[in-house]
Amino acid sequence: MPTRRRFLSTTLAAGAALAATGRAAADGPVAVRDIGSRRELFIDRFLIEQEKGTQLKLHEPRLAPVMSEPADNMEYGTVIKDGDLFRLYTRDGRGAKRDGDEPEVTRYCESRDGIRWTKPKLGLHEIDGSKENNVILHESPFCHNFCPVLDAKPGVVKEERFKALAGTVKSGLVAFTSADGVHWKKLRSEPVITYTKEYAFDSQNVSFWSESEGCYVCYFRHFLDKKLRSVCRTTSPDYVKWSEPVPMKPNFPGEHLYTTLTHPYFRAPHIYVALPTRFHPERGESTDVLFMTARGAAPFDRTFREAFIRPGLDPARWGNRSNYAALNVVPTGPNEMSIYTTPFRRFTLRTDGFASSHAGADVGEMLTRPLKFAGKELVVNFATSAGGSLRVELQDAEGKAVPGFALADCRNFVGDAVEQKVSWTKGKGIGELAGQTVRLRFVMQEADLFALQFQK
Question: Which of 293, 315, 350 is the last residue of a domain?
Fold first, then answer.
């Protein structure tokens, strides 16, 4: 197998060069990442110390076929996966002349698979002379940007299993609660979040319970320097008392971020995924969708500056309010997750597949920062071409291969799997290294590494 021999000799030589030159260029000690048994995605450089012939690659969501049983058209939509049920909440402007005017309503749809949707006749509000509709809220100005969340806080009372924020700069953000996601009431009549420094709240204002921070988090719209549409952040222990809002300033120069749609990623809730709409007022008010991430209170990561979802071939998608993603990326299959956008379209990605550490036709390497883990096996989400490959070496804190876990001992992985256990021919099991400082050296060719996890 001459090709495999060339691959091995090339990768070993590249590894030696990387070890000899890479760390010598580092500025001071590198912080150890204690990742425990959390799943980590390659959506930023949190784990990456060095790259040689690899790079972070943003993957393009694929437009799914037109749904035969679609939900209502979305205007500021929210999709919640509640067990086996998908719930969709969306504004229906009903011809309102101004945002927040009385004609606006909030509609509710549901689905068992995220593809075929029903519009239940709830009988809650009389609209145009009939209660045979799926309207769950009809109260100005809250229908303009009513944004629900399934509360993940441990021990939350069942009457408040769902929460929502809604309002305008005049009303402030008012909190709502619900036991079933359909029947809603105000948590209190007064707003729970106010902001008077500049115009605010004129967009979808999102909230969620943060498992990693141990508090509620809200990202809401404001005007940065009274010029650019941007985002503020505030936190709360109880959804009633909120901290002083802090401008996050994720904008690049001259960039308007109409929404942020920040939410915990369902397979790694310590990572916040954001799908903001970028607004181009100087280009016919056209819009596209970006991809950003955040970890706790840290600033948004802007590793990827290009559009995540482009307007596309349809001329109707090249105007204002034409490209908004719904809040929440949700799983719609064992290997698939979905993003919904206006008017009501579905885009898909492989599970964890927002971005990857990518190697092309030439052999590339990626070395992680020093890290500590908890678990007995290493699982990766990866994909190669038929001629590609991925292998892993475990190194100690000094950058030396751990005996039994060197690159030459690792099985050569060729294929495509959301969860692939990494194995070595000589190693007894990586559980013996748990709690110790190690590095992972990935050697790849025509391959993408989307995520890793040390599992117990």
Answer: 350
The proportion of the chain whose per-residue pLDDT surpasses 70, expressed as a percent, equals: 93
Residues 186 and 164: their CA atoms lie apart, in Å, by 9
Q: Report pTM.
A: 0.92
For 384, the domain range is 2-58+356-455
Closest CA to 301 of 270, 264, 273: 273
Residue 220 dihedral angles phi and psi, to the nearest 5°: -130, 160
Is the CA virtual torsion 96, 99, 105, 109 positive or negative?
positive
> In terms of domains, do 316 and 366 share one?
no
Give the whole-number percent of the chain exceeding pLDDT 90: 89
Query: Are residues 324 and 190 both part of a single domain?
Result: yes
SS3 147: strand
Domain containing residue 387: CATH number: 2.60.120.260
Q: Does the pLDDT of residue 306 top 90, yes or no?
A: yes
DSSP E strand stretches across 225-267:
228-236, 246-247, 256-257, 263-265
Q: Are 440 and 365 in contact (CB under 8 A)?
A: no
If asked whether residues 285 and 144 sit together in one domain, one would say yes
Model pLDDT for residues 345-370, shown as the tens digit of each residue = 999 999 999 999 999 999 999 999 99
Which of 310, 331, 350 is the C-terminal boundary of a domain? 350
Are 105 and 203 in the same domain? yes
How far is Cα 453 from Cα 35, in angstroms, rounded to an integer? 9
Are 49 and 68 within one domain?
A: no
By CB neighbour count within 10 A (0-12 exposed, 13-18 middle, 19+ buried), where does 316 fall? Answer: exposed
Neighbours of 285 (CB within 10 A): 14
* CA distance linking residue 67 with residue 330, whole number of Å: 17
Burial 398-409 (b: 16+ CB within 10 A, else e): eeebbeebbbeb
User: What number is the average pLDDT over the span 124-134?
Assistant: 97
Nearest-CA neighbor of 390 among 352, 426, 420?
Answer: 420
Conformation bin of residue 274: beta by default, left when phi > 0, alpha when psi is -120 to 50: beta
In contact, 443 and 376? CB cutoff 8 Å? no
Rounded CA-CA distance 237/31 in Å is 30
Number of domains in the chain: 2
* CA pair distance 153, 164, nearest whole angstrom: 14
Contact 277, 258 (CB under 8 A): yes
